[in-house]
Amino acid sequence: MAKEATVACEPFSLEKGMQYLDHFSSCSQKSCDYSLVNLWAWDEYFGYHWAWDGDLVWLLCTRPYEAFQAPVGRWETQDWREIFERFPEGTCFERVPERLACIWKRALGDQLEVRDDRGQWEYIYRVKDLVELKGNRYHGKRNLLRQFMKNYDWTYSRLEDRHIPEVLKMQQEWCESRDAENSVGIAVEDVAIKRTFSRWQELPNLIGGVLYAGGKMVAYTVGERLDDDTLLIHFEKGLSQYKGVYQAINHLFLLNEGAEFTWVNREQDLNIEGLRKAKMSYNPAFFLRKCRVKWLGVS
């Protein structure tokens, strides 16, 4: 009979959110997947459970299939051999940040199989680069930004509670323009966005921006302070009939809300070709690489 993991899981809930953040803050590499905002936003889709295991918190997805993700906490101080021996052979762990995968590999060597998961790599950019858009590599972005600023009577504001009804109205318009009813991915993301706004006041570290043209909201961004150096972008939506709208919201949000940060994390591309092309076009400074790790058992 296969051994079962001796990690007791319970359903995710915001009631333990601040306790979770204490563990997350001690991670030496912070992936977007493990931010409290992301866990809340995507919980309806992934069915998160978590296990409180000493000074680690393990994440388990129960939908659309069951899979462990990486633990958060003080990775460098654990007895990983003792911990892994609690799991049955063949247990797989998804979205494991590269730094943790290296720690595991040093501790367990050939008892682990580690594979890159390119679709889960996170795109990290210099805030300064995306604000200034200097050089030939940003020529096209600069032109689109200038066109938007020239062609529209625009205003930018930091996203506040009073904007949320208007944001949700714009989000509905955006979904309808993309035929969301026939796109599972867009419909699932729409739920995550609405969940985020439903608890806007309770979720810590959220930062947003809204962009108007001619008095109409045409774009918004939802971000999060990931740590003192990094701003994480969760959602960025614009009405595409306004030429240059995405370049404008990206530029203005970072110009106004990103000045204190060095890096901006724009999450992963999920192996979606168009999304990868768009993210690469902004010239990432580096990637936060993630892996799939399989525990092969005691040799």
Question: What key phrases describe this protein's structure?
Answer:
single chain, 299 residues, alpha+beta, Aminopeptidase, seven-stranded mixed sheet
Describe this structure in words.
The chain is of the alpha+beta class. It folds into two domains: 10-121 and 289-295, Aminopeptidase (3-Layer(aba) Sandwich), CATH 3.40.630; 122-267, 3-Layer(aba) Sandwich (Aminopeptidase). Helices cover 35% and strands 27% of the residues. It has helices spanning 17-25, 36-41, 43-46, 80-84, 98-108, 127-132, 139-151, 164-177, 184-198, 245-257, 273-280, and strands spanning 10-11, 48-53, 56-61, 67-73, 92-97, 112-116, 122-126, 154-158, 206-213, 216-225, 230-238, 263-265, 286-288, 290-295. The strands form two sheets. The protein has a seven-stranded mixed β-sheet, sandwiched between helices. The protein has a seven-stranded mixed β-sheet with strand order 8-9-10-11-12-7-13, with helices on both faces. Helix 4 (80-84) links the parallel strand 4 (67-73) and strand 5. Helix 7 (139-151) packs across helix 10 and helix 8 runs antiparallel to helix 9. The relative contact order is 0.18.
The average pLDDT score comes to 95
Structural class: alpha+beta
Radius of gyration: 20 Å
* The top level CATH class name of the largest domain: Alpha Beta
